[in-house]
Write a structure and sequence with these properties.
Elements: E1 34-37, E2 59-66, E3 71-78, E4 89-95, H1 112-119, E5 123-127, H2 146-164, E6 170-180, H3 182-191, E7 200-204, H4 216-230, E8 235-239, H5 248-260, E9 265-269, H6 287-300, H7 337-349, E10 354-358, E11 363-368, H8 372-383, E12 388-392, E13 395-396, H9 424-434, E14 440-444, E15 450-454, H10 458-467, E16 474-478, E17 481-482
Parallel strand pairs: 4-5, 4-6, 6-7, 7-8, 8-9
Antiparallel strand pairs: 1-11, 2-3, 3-5, 10-11, 10-12, 12-13, 14-15, 14-16, 16-17
Helix pairs in contact: 2-3, 4-5
């Protein structure tokens, strides 16, 4: 059963005259997307594919951060469904990045950061900055003074943390601060206040670029040195080589100045990620690049780091089956040649994470979202039968038929003349078999009889066809393999 969502009534922006925001050009948090291909049916609703099915126990709070004029921030809180201790839960407060459209920014972005912490048994708090979503106020401009930008946010973060850590179910002795992009920078600035109730800092591609600053990279590098000189909390920094917002020279310079000044930080360079490393935490494909490092960091500061809620993360991909390579379009089962070409071309062009599911009458794929394998299977079952995963990312996971003998080197698959026993009609039937859709099987008998079948249970169907009035029927080929042993 899906969880019930809470309903919160907010004043509109028209009722709050101080609700505006300066333009920040740090990369906005990208929406997770889900793409599908199948016959002409509506796409699977994105809200069903962007979140785990596990309970989020979501609550939305409005936290006061300023008395006059009154300003409050919208804060989303998730509680894990369970833990070995049953609660109270450690807390990860996650600071979001900047957006070109603050008023319409999603309340939860870069979702795989909160999903990761929920899987480790943490409660999650995500405050929206002033002017973002349904938070009131605005972010004050400070030009190139990136420390002042972070200091403004740090004051609000402190008030949100004081509010959230007193909620029932929160272990106020186990808190980490996390941030992505501008939120990563705000996390580092907050950390420089050396809060006694925070154990460590996790910075994902942190930084900020304000539109009225002509030298943002130089400002970040210089300011990072000042933060390092003041900060005593340990931190871990995650950056990628093809970050389209902060160049390698910038984040390496920031880290160098920070640590040279005395800051205790570990740098994780996770290399290039798809088209933009800045979007790594918005994709399930990025999880293998950072989860183990985050686990080790949390353990090093005495925080929980073991997975206790695997349902909050995408299921591990099945192993390669050896059935076919991802480029072999003819290996896709059940579908016609035209359908195979269509689903195959769309799937190859889609970005990871992605998955393809095939049913007896339809093929579909999903890209992005929380768990594309789950989404592809749900979509397949809504339009077809006998659905199974065919591929995950670039790995074919469709299994060989369970009762198929092992492949042999008796002859090449398409060598019609090599097939034993057959007369002219049997060889013509074998040539037609090679053009049939998979799953398929071809059987032969010593008296020249044969059987050919394509569909849900082709091996038994082909054996039954061959055995009608004939003895000694055996399997010669299954799908793309010759399985005849020669004796």
């Amino acid at each position: 059963m899906r969880r019930a969502r809470c309903t919160v009534i907010f004043l509109t922006r028209e009722t709050n005259p101080i609700m505006r925001s300066v333009k920040l050009t740090a990369a906005f948090l990208p929406w997770l997307f889900v793409s599908f291909l199948a016959s002409p049916h509506a796409a699977w609703p994105s809200e069903r594919s962007a979140e785990p099915e596990a309970p989020l126990n979501e609550r939305i709070f409005r936290v006061p951060v300023q008395a006059s004029p009154p300003i409050s921030l919208e804060v989303t809180v998730y509680m894990p469904a369970h833990s070995p201790r049953g609660g109270p839960f450690p807390l990860a407060l996650i600071n979001h990045g900047a957006s070109h459209d603050p008023a319409n920014a999603p309340r939860v972005g870069d979702q795989f950061i909160p999903w990761y912490f929920l899987s480790r048994g943490y409660a999650i708090a995500i405050p929206m900055m002033r002017g973002y979503a349904h938070s009131y106020g605005y972010t004050a401009p400070h030009g190139c003074d990136v420390l002042a930008i972070g200091a403004d946010a740090a004051q609000d973060i402190r008030k949100v943390l004081d509010y959230v850590k007193d909620l029932p179910g929160i272990d106020a002795s186990q808190i980490v601060m996390v941030g992505k992009s501008m939120g990563g920078w705000n996390t580092l600035v907050f950390g420089a206040t050396n809060p006694p109730d925070v154990r460590g800092l996790l910075n994902f591609a942190g930084g900020v670029k304000e539109s009225d600053c002509s030298r943002p990279d130089e400002s970040l590098i210089s300011a990072a040195g000042e933060l390092g000189a003041r900060t005593r909390l340990p931190s871990i920094w995650f950056y990628g080589e093809n970050d389209q917002t902060f160049s390698n020279a910038t984040w390496r310079g920031m880290y160098g100045r920070y640590t040279a000044a005395g800051g205790h930080a570990q740098l994780v360079d996770y290399g290039a990620f798809q088209k933009d490393a800045h979007a790594m935490t918005a994709s399930g494909a990025g999880l293998p690049l950072w989860m183990a490092k985050a686990d080790a960091f949390l353990a090093s500061i005495g925080m929980p780091s073991r997975e206790v809620g695997p349902e909050y993360l995408p299921r591990p991909a099945p192993k390669a089956s050896g059935y076919a390579t991802i480029d072999d379009v003819d290996a896709i089962p059940y579908l016609s040649a035209r359908e195979r070409a269509s689903v195959h071309a769309g799937y190859l062009a889609a970005p990871a994470p992605k998955a393809m599911a095939i049913g007896s009458t339809n093929g579909t794929w999903a890209s992005g979202g929380f768990d594309p394998a789950r989404s592809a299977m749900q979509r397949c079952w809504s339009t077809s039968r006998y659905c199974r995963l065919y591929a995950v990312d670039n790995t074919v996971v469709w299994p060989r038929q369970a009762s198929a003998p092992p492949r042999t080197d008796f002859a090449p698959l398409r060598d019609v003349a090599a097939v034993p026993y057959l007369r002219t009609d049997g060889r013509r039937a074998y040539a037609q078999y090679l053009a049939a859709s998979r799953p398929r099987a071809f059987t032969i008998a010593p008296d020249g009889a044969w059987g050919a079948a394509s569909g849900v249970d082709p091996i038994n169907d082909a054996l039954a066809q061959c055995a009608t009035g004939h003895a000694g029927c055996r399997i010669y080929s299954v799908d793309g393999d010759v399985v005849w042993a020669g004796k």
